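Let us begin with a simple case.
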Amino acid sequence: MTGQTDNGARRLRHPELLLYLFAAVALLVLLGYEGLRGSEDRWAEIVREMQLNGDYWHPALNGRVYFDKPLLSYWLIAAAAFIFRQLNEFIIRLPSALLALAGLAATVYVARKLFNRQVALTAGWLMAGSYGFLWFGRLAEADMGNMAVIMLALAWFVRYRYRGGFWVYLVFFLICALGAHLKGLPALIVPPVLAVPLLWENKLYLNHLKISLLAAAVIAGGVFYGIYYLSSVFPMPEFYQLPSHGLDGWGLFIRENFQRATAAFDHKDEPFFSYAYNLPRLLLPWSVFTTIGLGWMIYRWKSLGWNGRGMLIGFALVFALFSASESRRWYYILPLLPYSMIFGGYFLADAVSDAYRWKRYLIEAFRYLAIFAGSLAVISVIVIPFWSKLVGFHLPLLFLVALPVLGALTLLVMAVDERRSRTWLEALTGMPRNYAGMVLGVTILAAGGFSVLKASFDDLRTLRPFARELKANWPAAVEPEDTIFFSVEANASLNYYVAFSAPIAVAVDEKERVSGMKLAEFFTARAGRPTVLIAYSKYLPELEAALPALPIKIDVKRPDYQEKRLSFENAKSRKMLVWILNARGVSATLANDNNSTTTQRGTEQ
């Protein structure tokens, strides 16, 4: 079994506090520095439209009902916006960061209950420095909330697994039900699947086969369905459009979570074995330790005890369920990240494995990798004048300042770790001295990389500055309904940053394709009114082909505003272009030409 916490770790009464403080800093520092990325714009724009229209029961994008994700993830952002009286990138991401902390605390609690404090704290530090935790914990999407709720439900179960009762069961099922309103079916299925194998010891499951269990499940199910029912009862704004599939929230939940997810071995997204390499991807840089930890626990099956065996069985069942689902994305397997970290913590803290020389070599290898990476970061100060020549563009100032500081912190930890007396480091972290410094050093590098270094590169992204410039110069005479986006859908980030007060038109046909006919109908209906045309650069050929049928004059090669193209971006990178058209249907650039004005307002390089 694993080694017990020794006197060094007992000197600090709550080493968990340092872990949680470190994780909070890693998640919250510069949380709002970056502009919206990936699918974050959907959450941001949906909440903005909820506030704008006063309807919190029907999520909508550009006035089109969007029930692809349940309501709770939007409500959490809306609640944060209400508390802080503002909606910005920090507020939008704050629920994910707080849920990540809750998921970390639940993971430490579960590991401590099933094993001991050393395993729990080691797993916690591994998790705090992992790619999956740091990436999704700083992202305004529902995936981190899904993982956190699953672990919170499991923590509640572990606390009360030897004694049950109606209220214990009800809280467990309510956590699962509310969690399902963050992401969907996984929060309903994964916690019970992980919990049941832990009840097999001495047939503990027999103690829970009660009517109260069924009653609690029914009540929680009613709460779960009740939210969908209320969303169908409350009226929505008249101008909202229903999606083409015509499904409400409940219908979409059934389609997405049952009709697709239960189509076993009908693989359309990724192959059924994709999670075998996508899970280690989420566990970086600890993939080696977590994978070995899984193998180590299997190797020690007979002497493992039922807690470990139950975890392995639950892990295998959940992995198989996700693999068998038709709907597969690489990050869907995120709920297994906490268990994986517990496997790694068990291996590192297990006194039996210390007898193997290869374990010491592996820990030393990671220690020297941390020293090497920290040294490179520190000496980056010397090559600052040459950075632009080395990488081909000017790196952000924040990156150049933060990199050597991050390296210095790592080397400081490594220097302490090299000393013979490491008891205070052991006391601070709660991890054994033979690997505490290594884990802390690598975690500092990983956390700093995701919280500061990655955020610094937002200075090289162009959409937010472009949208803000467009908002500042938006013609007062042009209403949102006089604006059309020549694309398959409006850009949610643009809508959010410009803050349109009503939906804008989109030039798509019934088959959801860009349509020159729709564009012609739009401008014909608005003859004599100032309008705005927005398009992606990739649709310029289609736009040029539609020009002869349009009652306007526009030079597609000369937009009035255009998103900046950086020197290292290729010509195919997607950029937005904007034409401001006056009441005669003439763009500002052409009007300026007629007045012998040669000013070009675009910013493309």
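The second case is a distinct protein. As before, the sequence precedes its structure tokens.
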Amino acid sequence: MQKNATTKGSFRHGHPLYLAILAVLGTPHSGALAQDPRPRPAASTEPVDTVVVTAQRRREPAREVPLSADVVRGEDLERSGYQSLGDLAALLPGVNYNEAGSGSGQSQVTMRGISTGAQVGATVSMYIDDVPFGSSSGYAGGGSSALDLGLFDLSAAEVLRGPQGTLYGAGAMGGLIKYVAAEPDPAERLANITTELSGSRNGKLSHVARAVLNLPLQDGKAALRATLYQREEGGLVRDSNHGNRIVDGAKIDGARVALLLTPTKNLSLRLTALSQKQQRDGSSTEDVSLTSGEPIDGRATKRLFLSEPVKINNELVSLAIKADLNWASLDAISGWQRSRNDGRADPSALYLPYLAPLGINAAGYGLDYSFSTRKFTQELRLTSPRSRSLEWLVGAFYTKEEGYKSQYLQAYNQQLQAVPPLLADARFPSSFRELAAFGTATYFINERTDMTLGVRRSRNSQQLEQRFDGLFAPAPQPAADSTEDVTTWMATARWRPAAGQALYLRAASGYRPGGPLPVVRNPINGEPLNQSSYASDSLWSYEAGWKGDLLPGKVSAELALYQINWKDMQVFTAYAGFSGIGNAGRARSRGIEATLRARPIPGVRIAAALSLINAELREDNPSLGGKAGERLPDTARVAGALQVERDFSIDGKHGYLGASLRYTGERWNSFQQSRSMLPYRLPAYTVLDLRGGLEFGHSNLGFFLRNVLDQRGQTSADTSLSTLGAPARVNLVPPRTLGVQLSYAFY
């Protein structure tokens, strides 16, 4: 299969890829294909005049929302073979997904350049429907545990750019990603089964199986929807130290069950239970030279002393109650969640040369780590009815979180048996509580002009314990706690100069919570050597935008210009030989985002997006190893995407062909003088994907061909083990991958 898929170099007019692209673009070569008059969704982000979002906690057209919002339909993700958070982020220029970390299963998402590389806490919030998921604290892996939920049976994935602190709270500094699940339908009985088989060049076969059942329980009043899925990734990265065996296979099992009850027209209840379990053999990284950027032992190859397995379990139960009180609607959303990440990293490349001068000569080293969170959230929200004079929203939010983090660093002999000395056994139990009140009000000055003001007041309290043992253990530290009050603001002004046109100005703030720090004291005089806590970091974003039709019904566009001022950035620090968290310095991000969506002729859809970002430090920062004017890590100055899709019919059977072209500019993984993460340049890359499908009654047969030109795109790099000469561990765009999908719907 790999040889047949090879398309290096140019291709002639008779090549299947050439014909497929011609069919997509609607050239004369595809004239035999009759256009299907039925409306079909776009290949990715839908035209703004048909998209509904909940960015402002109301269901409203995206073109009415005074901020940058992307909506990607779930069915489009599925039929293109996009199945992970990394796939979703790749479709959105200016959104960066980073898998680099000390072990597999660790990842982070950033937007608009709001990144310091090694993140203390998340700068992009993750939501499942209306429930925030993941740790809000800096002590339970929140900065490296972005929720990678299977993209199956979703209504859509909503991506909000820029700070969303007023309506969505802590952590939404750079933006927010919301997984919106398909709701149970009391009016339709449906069962659907889908299978998928795919293979990458030089890798093992992968497969997906999923089933969806929608069952009305009482016509118009009750329904049950259940989704089951399993994804097995064959893997493609080989370990040169262990017979070139593949070490990055994975298995993901997931289930979602939702019960919808609407006993009256003014009351609805939705109970949802979700579970996803991931088992990964290791990370999909390649050993790469820091100087040349080329693989050490060949493509998709690395050297390990120990395997690096990981298990990630995410569970959520939520209850959403909505009541129409006539004068307002009441939303009560409760969420109970549990997440756990257990894994092992192989830091031998760092510790072998580091410890040998100390007389410790083990064959290798292993770092077992664990992050876990138990969290309860409760939100109450009152929303006014639609009005052309004044609309308002008020709410309260509470969360209670128990977190735990552990690291166990151990020496091993050649037989992979643990041997003394124990280097480190560190455990960090923590707790986080937050109570917040928020509200927004929109005043309509006239039919064309309105203004919105929003505010959120939050109080959080935290506690942290640190328990150490082993050769590297510092002196015992007492438990630490902190309390903090934070206020975030939002103000917008919107003007509609004509039908189908809107201009807006937006100013908004966001923050990440601060936290407690164990106090390290001078052993001579007992004076503290550090602060007892680190403060929240915050930012203000100023945005001007336009949304409108260039050709009504055919071409629409959006344009946004923004500047973000970030202060008191949370960074990892070191003092008196003790590593911790602190605040340091300022940064600024300026950018332009533009999108264009077109339906030039019936059955043809085109979507284009461009992101330009200039994100840089505003002052020297020794903790980060950065100088004023230096670019922030993991941020491409230029990124863009072009997507085209065409519907057609053959003998009355509907079909489609589509293509996606994505470009990501060069990035650096860290600052140039970083002491903990050596700088590595990630080159620019371009990826072309194709997809197509044909309906046969209740059956659908589809295909996707990803990374058609087999580009070696480097997406992220971990150099935390490279300070003493080890290679960088680089994540890559998967090589050329061909997949086939078959689904059958039972009615």
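The longest helix spans residues 16-25. DSSP finds six helices and 44 strands in the chain.
Keep these points in mind for the review questions at the end of the chapter.
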